[in-house]
User: Fold this.
Amino acid sequence: MTRFAPEYVKYVLNDNFEDAKSQLLAPLMAIHYAHLAMLAAQGIVSPPDAHAIRAALDSVSQDEVRRAPFDGSCEDLFYYVERLIIDACGEDVAGRLHTARSRNDIDMTMYRMRQRELVLELLAATFELRRSLLDLISRHHETIFAVHTHTQRAQPTTVAHYLLAVVEQLERDAARLTGAYERTNRNPLGACAITGTGFPIDRQLTSELLGFGGPTVNTYGSIATVDYLLESTSATAVLLAGFGRFVQDLLLWSTAEFHYVRFGDGFVQSSSIMPQKRNPVAIEHARAIASKALGQTQAIFTSIHNTPFGDIVDTEDDLQPLVFSMFRDATRTIKIVAAAMTTAEFDAAQLEARAGEGWTTLTELADTLARDRNLPFRTAHAVAGRLMAARELHPERPIGELLAEASGPLPGGPLAYSDAALTTILSPRYFVTVRRTLGGPAPEETARAAKVSRGQLEADETWRDKAANALAQAEHTLAERSAAL
Assistant:
């Protein structure tokens, strides 16, 4: 018979039970096995009792637990599983498993175990996007197009140059996420309720068996702090904000008015009434999902803000599903764009033809005058501006004559350039080619930068593989230690 009010069961406990079954059951069982192995190793639980408890744990079917409905007879998943263990080996023996621990440290350990997996999954998604962008970059070092500042056409660059900026941002996102992972991957188990225990436990052993980098230290902080969660949430929020700006550009570029990029048929949909439509709905979905995930990061901060610094439900059962959802949405929005970018096509000829419209290369004329004629840049800037105004008033006149008139008032007299020379100086390709400075758009520089980014991607993937393999190895070691009990 239930001891909880039906409203409490319906509106709180049932949902929490279902969330825990889907996300936290596997970590919970791993914690049981690791804690038991440690208690046995320390002589806190006798070998016969350890064997009986291990057999009871083995009898728990996670699939059956996940199918079980919440009947209100127990408070949460922990007590539900504990009841199964008691049924299997008796209350006197089963009760020894809870020596030197609390639901507090169990909960915080479960959350960290699940969160580290989610961080690694999100990292892997960003690697997919970086790889798809680098593959595009390799084909577009020479693809010139006009980029915008303040929503207005500004200067020519290359598709490779633009995409490298996105890649470098994703590299910094990876650094933030790996740092968050390392600080998340610390083991609170053994902190018990808040003050630890008088039993001679080995927190380093449980850390190793659960794949943690080591134990947390202060036992109160082990239960009270959630900065590890906020750090990974912050890193995800930064990732999503930058990613969303890129997605917005993609949607703008895929309009008929821009026609910069075209996505494969598998990522677009037609209209039910307008057969000519080619809607990039996959990218639209990515923007919506990213916005949803970003909103969830803010909700996480809001839920935690101004709560007591201690064990508090605000950081537990009701918050964790939001964390899981945030990471899931962040991961899937990155993955869909990564996949779509493998089909992205840029019309190089058309992009270059349009890149010089609107005097986008006028800065290079000012630069050339400053370099070749030793003019102060501000003076050269003014001459270039006068040339533009004159050319718009008299498009029929030779541009060399117009430059001579525009520079006539200078102390050195009119500047003489042939029409052919000025055509070259004002061409988008020349504009890009001469910008060889570090991080610039010249093809040789973007090729160098892309090579560096390829190397960074390989290093980041190696780090992630090592982290994932460490978790897998710990799981294997835990299984072996448990089987030996």
